[in-house]
Amino acid sequence: MVKFSKELEAQLIPEWKEAFVNYWQLKKQIKRIRLSRLPTKPPHAAQLFAGVDFGRSIFDSLRSIAANLADNLRPSYDDDNLTVIQVRRKTVKGSEEEIYETELAQLFSEEDEVRVFFESLDEELNKVNQFYKKQESEFMERGDTLNKQLQILLDLKTIISNRRWFKSSNPSSNSASFSHSPSRNSDYSERFGGESDETNSEVSSQTEEVITTLEKNGINLVNSGMRGKKTKKGKPKMGMRIDVPATNPTRAITAITSMLLEDLVNNPTTTGGDFIFKRKIQSAEKMIRSAFVELYRALGLLKTYSSLNTIAFSKILKKFDKVVRLMDEVESIFTKHFANNDRKKAMKFLRPQQNKDSHMVTFLVGLSTGCFVSLFCVYAILAHLCGIFSPSKEPRYMETVYPVFSVFALLSLHLFMYGCNLFMWKRTRINYNFIFEFSPTTALKHRDAFLICTSLMTTVVGAMVIHLLLRAAGFSPSQVDAIPGILLLVFIMLLICPFDFFYRPTRYCFIRVLRNIACSPFYKVLLVDFFMADQLTSQIPLLRHLETTSCHFFATIFKTHNPEACHSGRLYMEITYIISFMPYYWRALQCARRWFDDSDVNHLKNMGKYVSAMVAAGARVTYSRQDNHLWFVIVLITSTVATVYQLYWDFIKDWGFLNPNSKNPWLRDDLILKNKSIYYMSIALNVVLRLTWVETILHFKVGRVQSRLLEFLLASLEVIRRGHWNFYRLENEHLNNVGRYRAVKTVPLPFREMDSD
């Protein structure tokens, strides 16, 4: 039989951990009471816990305590069935808040440990009950809001359907339109036109039915007195505003401006206009559908919370029937309106089945790792035998082949670090899927990340072996050196391949995030967007290798320019500057967009960090080509300022450390890892790895091969630092969610509340 502590730990909702009953603390108190045998205790109190059996859970102990109390206090309690702890409800003076109090607590003195235990039990009971009531009220209110949103959507669909019917029955008329004014009144008007009074009457009758339906559902149509009036051309004239009563009487639900574009709605008769208008309605429907899915998930979490705590307080918390009823209602609504009455299809959205870990994936990871090690050994032997690093062959190989393989090696290392992150986040119960807003059914697991990493490196090293074999066989170097470029093209084709294999949801999610980063000012910035942009700032060497590879590929295959220009040409220099700036530039734009959306000055401060990093990166690139004392001083100053800025933001903002008032010295109050020394070592490691730029100003006198290897080593250390940074960044984000009890995503709705004036 699984112990209750294990069951609770397995099913515990991490973001609501503090709201659960403190099982472990109560258990410690019971053990302390049982072991204490103080002389001042009354005899019956000393015998009270003599027969207590600490069984499957602490609550078995509580029942035993209650039973012993019944036996020892029989003169005061004549109830033979006193096997559970009785509580009473009372109202706090000066408020309507109800609390619960254990009756047995009054039988002991204030100093008695048993009384202290029951008082702790009362605190836990009231904490759980108040949290449950708060969440239940919030979810009930959200359900009412979604019902109103859905009703508005259905009514809009009805009106649009009538307009389309009228257009199809009157092809000669081009004046029928559904107009939306972008003013704050958000008036919805439906103008019907026709050739005859009979058609006008018919359309007017249909519109009247829609208006009646809206009013029956609690939606008031303002200016409905215009019904019956006609324009100069004899068409019904009507100006309407959907006014749904909200909690605050000064607010009303109106359609968002982005849903119905003014120019589109004013001219909806064109084919393109109808298509875009239909897409807007579909977008609104998708938003409401996602909101229902999140509501259902929230209710499921609340039901789980209730079930686990009901074991402790069965008499009080056995009342989550409201949640169950609302879940059934959401299922019914979702099945009817979003799944065409197909319950099986609806359940795929509401209760998605998570993919179980496959032993086949683990086997493939081991297989590909073995192949990678074997091929790498073969490559090392062949490279030595072919003398590929000899002075005569070294330059061309390092210019054409090394950059491509460095790209894949750095990418594979980053994937490996991400796999380690996924493993640690799972072990420490950090809800990374919720933080990144990933779908649990398609999100990568750590085994998948390791499989992609090892498969990619096995393919790359295999290509390197084939490249050396062909060169040794006497093939033309210009033909053989095309292999790395072809490998890069195959990788790009695999990334954009539309067929559903090799983690297509993940590939497309990656492409979508890259698009959001490249167009940062024009997209709302999500956490996954700026998290990925931060990864790019650690992959500037990879981007520069891509530049070199592309340059050589076009020079060799298409003869567009001299390959020498890929290292010393003016265009190469300009592109190098751009590549060194771009990741920081994108990240700075994201900060600016977040400041614009949230009006939080911290985003501007964060933007300053990336601006300083851009200046330092540009100075280092210039110094690598203009080695003089002036640029040495400039690089030293700009890099030092940027590094101090970055370290400050790493430790204080991103990780939440260096809090002098924390109960954990110079860390933060809440820590997931139990060993504090790990955090201190991580701080020191991050400082050291942030200073790798020092090598760029020292100019070690080494050979070309050694210089390239040193460059690759420093790039790898930055990738490792980023993977190390990732864990603590998400740990801090997770703890922020825990502090706010944020376990459910808030989905924006297509109809939002705006000031009625």
UniProtKB/TrEMBL annotation:
The keyword Transport applies. PROSITE patterns: EXS, SPX. It holds the Pfam family SPX. It is a multi-pass membrane protein. Keywords: Membrane, Phosphate transport, Transmembrane, Transmembrane helix, Transport. InterPro entries: EXS_C, PHO1, PHO1_SPX, SPX_dom. Residues 169-209, 223-243 are annotated as: Disordered. Its main location: membrane. Residues 567-757 form the EXS domain. One of its GO terms (biological process) is phosphate ion transport. Residues 227-238 have a biased composition (Basic residues). It is found in: Endomembrane system. GO terms for cellular component: endomembrane system; membrane. The keyword Transport applies. Residues 2-334 form the SPX domain. Belongs to the SYG1 (TC 2.A.94) family. This is Phosphate transporter. It comes from Arachis hypogaea.
